[in-house]
Amino acid sequence: MTDQLPPTKRQKREDYRKAHKVDGSAELPKKKFYRQRAHANPFSDHQLTYPASPELMDWTAYYPAYIAPDTGPEDPNDHHGKRIKQLSRDITVADIGCGFGGLLVALAPILPDELLLGMEIRTQVTEFVQDRIKALRNQNADSGLYQNIACLRANTMKFLPNFFKKGQLSKIFLCFPDPHFKARKHKARIVSLTLNSEYAFAMKPGGIVYTITDVEDLHKWMVKHLEDHPGFDRLSKEEEAGDECVKTMMVETEEGKKVERNKGEKFVACFRRLEDPPWP
Predict the structure, then answer these.
(1) CB-facing half-sphere around the CA of 258: CA atoms within 13 A
(2) Mind telling me the catalytic residues?
(3) CA distance 116 to 257
(4) Beta strands of the chain (E only): which ranges?
(5) 13, 76, 99, 224: most buried by Cβ count inside 10 Å?
(6) CA distances to 39, 76, 157, 188, 226 from 42, in Å
(7) How many CB atoms lie within 10 A of CB 244?
(8) Angle at which helices 193-202 and 156-163 cross, to 10°
């Protein structure tokens, strides 16, 4: 009889993640079991699931506490024979490239009347945030905390308009994005004239795009490209200083904490979505 080989590190991680999916678990997940590369190539053909349009997205598995009442057999949300369950309110805050979910978790009690969505392209990081949210919900079952946040695996550089309709969002967070230092990689940066137009489409007038990085060159790039876009106007330093979300963004992301530990500098710039000019 041969001795059974001990489980590999990869097998241990897989076993841990399976065990952690038990319903009702209130134990917070451990990052070491959700290992992934720091960045993913947004131009790769990732195996992603996304709706053809925002109206076809079923969010009820992500926000079970906000499922709208059934409207009966003649439901206006019946799309070609497929009824899409609706939420009682729209998602209004998106954390693009949410990482391990630190900002989402911190904003949940600060924005209790908003639905917040973290969007992350890396598979295991997304899984970590989803398990983290489940555990936090179970820990706070009596108060209902953290029911207003969720995380979805998505490539926002390709599919943002598939999830959000025009003027839906009031806040977009772009926290410590991949700087893509090489000039030939700049096209993969999360802020560009083309992507800014998609952010402008999804945002309502008066909404705010929040950016933060520890790379000054990337900060200048984001500022230039957002200032050059006719749909955005930069907030003053006084407005930024008085914004509770800016204060939270500075200290609650995992990358921000790492920069703090290394005594690095953080560069912040926020931009307000302007009203579209009237048609001639």
Answers:
(1) 10
(2) 178
(3) 21
(4) 78-79, 82-83, 91-96, 115-120, 149-153, 169-175, 203-213, 232-234, 267-273
(5) 99
(6) 9, 35, 7, 7, 21
(7) 10
(8) 20
* Cβ-Cβ contacts under 8 Å for 135 (sequence gap 6 or more): 25, 26, 27, 28, 29
Instruction: Give dist(CA 167, CA 204) in Å, integer.
Output: 4
Which H or E run contains 258? helix 254-261
Query: Among 101, 159, 161, 154, which Cα is nearest to 123's?
Result: 154
Q: What is the pTM of this model?
A: 0.87
Q: How far apart are CA 95 and CA 79, in angstroms?
A: 28
SS3 content of the chain, % helix, strand, coil (to 5): 35, 20, 45
Q: Which two tokens stand for residue 265?
A: 């500098």
Query: 189 — alpha (psi -120 to 50), left (phi > 0) or beta?
Result: beta
Mean pLDDT of 2-9: 61
Average pLDDT of the chain is 87
| pLDDT (tens digit per residue) in 68-81 | 987 544 455 555 55
99, 120 Cβ separation under 8 angstroms: yes
Residue 83 pairs in a beta bridge with: 78
